Here is the input.
Amino acid sequence: MDVKFTNQKSRFKHRVCAVIINEDKVLGVEINHSDFYCCPGGHVHLGESTLDAVKRELQEETGFITKSAKLLAVNENFFGKRNEVEFHELGFYYLIEVEDFGERDKDFSLTENDEGELVDLDFKWIKLDDLENEEYEFMPVPIAKKLKARNFEFEHIITHNLED
Here is the structure.
């Protein structure tokens, strides 16, 4: 069971994200043609460590096997207000080294079966210097800024982007 819940005014989700860098590019994913990119990842299961979750999610979404992982950031992200619902996301971002990229050192797409729901995943290797360009809206913004600055030290980030 994923660690997420919703009430009338709020939606909470506990996520993990894999920051994978290859040749000064980060792997981003656009989910269901959402017009923005983020790091690959997903929900933490109840009783699962964030480290185990990021390894599992990465293998499920890309087939990559984690060689090493370093906690890069914890991002408490408050955003949205779609249909009067505020979103609260607790994200653990891990800098991941993979065993082998295989054919996936270039952009690729696939469809994932996520608990019975088909999800289109478009993966793109984005130059770190392009992370804040409008062409690649990379979310959340503080993570994009951190990666563009090549800041690989741990950081606790709190972001408030609630719309009125």
